[in-house]
Amino acid sequence: MSTESAENRPLPAGPVVQPTIEPADLEPIYTNFARVTGSPEELILDFGLNTAPVGDPSSPVPVKIDQRLVMNYYTAMRLWFTLGQSLKRHETNFGKIEVDIAKRLVGQQGAAR
Known about the structure:
The chain is of the alpha+beta class. It has one domain. Helices cover 30% and strands 20% of the residues. Strands 1-2-3 form a 3-stranded antiparallel beta sheet.
């Protein structure tokens, strides 16, 4: 059994793997609205910004769709699996993600007292 610490061990020989660098002109988007539609061959995901997510339902503000993602069902299944794993990991580390805004607002009102 070696008594060398991890700091003193030589690095393994072989090619150096460079991280993937995203394109310099890649622009991230923010979305708080998603709509999923589809056909027998593919899923269509529309993303946009809802500027009045808890606004007056009697005078709705239209959601402007900024991005559309079209994928086949195989890719959608891999995305679903990956998103699920990421959400489980987040909840393990930070607690349950509450998607019901009314419950989130009640929690904030109780904390403000």
